[in-house]
Records
---
Amino acid sequence: MADARKDKMTVGSPADGGTRSVSVIVPTYQEVGSLPALIERLDGLRQVGWDLELIIVDDDSRDGTLELIEGLSHDWIQLKVRTEDRGLSTAVMAGLDDASHELLIVMDADLSHPPESIPAFVQSLDAGADFVIGSRYVPGGSTEDGWGVLRWINSKVATVMARPFTKVKDPMSGFLGLHRSTWRGASDLDPVGYKIGLELIVKCRCGNVMEVPIHFSTRRAGESKLTLKVQRDYLVHILRLARWKYPERSSFIPFAIVGASGIGIYAGLLAVLGGLFGNLLGMDLVIVISILLTMCWNFTLDRKLAFWWAKEGQAGLQLLGFIAICAIPVLVNFWVTRTFAVEDQMATPLAGVIGAAIGSALGILFNWGASRFFVFNR
Ligand SMILES: Nc1nc2c(ncn2[C@@H]2O[C@H](COP(=O)(O)OP(=O)(O)O)[C@@H](O)[C@H]2O)c(=O)[nH]1
Ligand SMILES: [Mg+2]
């Protein structure tokens, strides 16, 4: 209770004394227990001069949300019930699309985000921010006690993973503010997962992101929708953002790792095939077969991880192209492995590691560049 009182004391009227227009978007799934208090506190802003519309985007909760809003019949509240599409991020996007004012605020329904901070968001937007975040981790921000260690660690790890995309202190926050023009400027939105704020900061190319300190309250009603799936989706989200923002690095790093794994596979194949069929087939053939199988290994992984955009293309043709491009390093690899293994009598896997390492070092940049532009062309 003390926390709610503290939040309420910060309500401010529009800075210029006139009316300011704000659209507040609230995604909901089974939040009927929190909505009356949220609506009351948002109404508090209207009472002091804010022209505020509330857009609730509910994913067919069937918990009385519809009846509650219809019963209130406030003309400043719009309820959109979705029955086909589901998910937090797309709900937020649907709400942003429907908003009619210039300043847009996104917040949770569960009162973790104090509505009384909205004037501070508007102030930051007026001061030139492209995007505003309600932050627990800037001076003045706080989190209500009672977060378990696991949830805290989870939030910190997720924040560190977002570092390549934004330097803000609390990129996991779902309390967001932006101008409509920023929202309209978003490109390639790919709303996987829960962190629509991070997606918007990156895809709207927001340069000036400000953080407003908030006190993050623990929800009093309903349950969190944070599940293990949300965490898996977050990893996919980070990967997709990396591919979007840093396409070269996101391609080359997996390519190099797959290449290194190929060296291990090649040495293993030489050991196994050499041991089993060395006498029967002769070392030359064992080396050739090992190289071909290793190339298939590299090809399969590279196609998925390094050249992800081409994984729907014709695999057979791509494999031929991939083999052709690898020809020079592969010939070097073959020659080095053969020289050490057959002429110098070195243990075959060791000769293979040396051959593959020299071949890979020679070929890595050439192979990656040529594969990228000729075989897996975007
Ligand atoms: N429309 C919609 N809202 C959702 C969905 N999942 C979560 N929400 C809402 O998103 C906000 C944040 O969810 P919450 O469970 O509080 O997440 P937490 O704060 O990370 O525990 C709440 O208002 C939820 O009701 C969903 O699938 N669809
Ligand atoms: Mg919550």
---
Amino acid sequence: MGWTGWICVTPNFTVTNETKDEVKIEVIYMPENCIKKSKRGDLMNAHYDGFLAKDGSQFYCSRTEKDGHPKWFVLGVGQVIKGLDIGMDGMCAGEKRKLIIPPSLGYGQQGNEKVPPNSTLMFEIELYSVSRGPRSMEAFMEMDLDKDRALSKTEVRKSLMAEYEKGGTRRDDSFYDAIIADIFRTSDHNGDGMISTKEYNVYEHDEL
Ligand SMILES: [Ca+2]
Ligand SMILES: [Ca+2]
């Protein structure tokens, strides 16, 4: 799922027949392992770039914002604009979507500093992870088996195995290796191979 090569450029697209009050969803990439689909209340980790539909100009790019990390937010609770809450429902980790969002589900008649009034928006989304519920300290403590207030790869693996193998299906190591590599890439900011409580709780409430 490498996103390192993804740069923020204006894509080639045209908007036709935009429907009022409806989010148009186009799946650009669907991963083979689509295990868990997002639903309201899930914690999402995604990159999303926003463009104005009328001329394709970019008004937001999470890859160049702040530290360029994918953004964390809870789905369906208004932490992002309505069109994103709707358009990112039923999505799985690794999936990419293009969304077309009418003004009523975007920034409306007001717009914001970068979005003119009554703008139809186009978003490109790449979802990295979906997990049930916000990252709570309770969940952290549960995963932190040796109680050293840091999560090792072994601890993360055990917790993933408990979750993915609930139904009794055994998955091979490479399945977990890929997920763990992804989790540590996005969460282990100082690269010491452990996820600290601070790194775990990177809760960003973005303006979007
Ligand atoms: Ca630990
Ligand atoms: Ca760390």
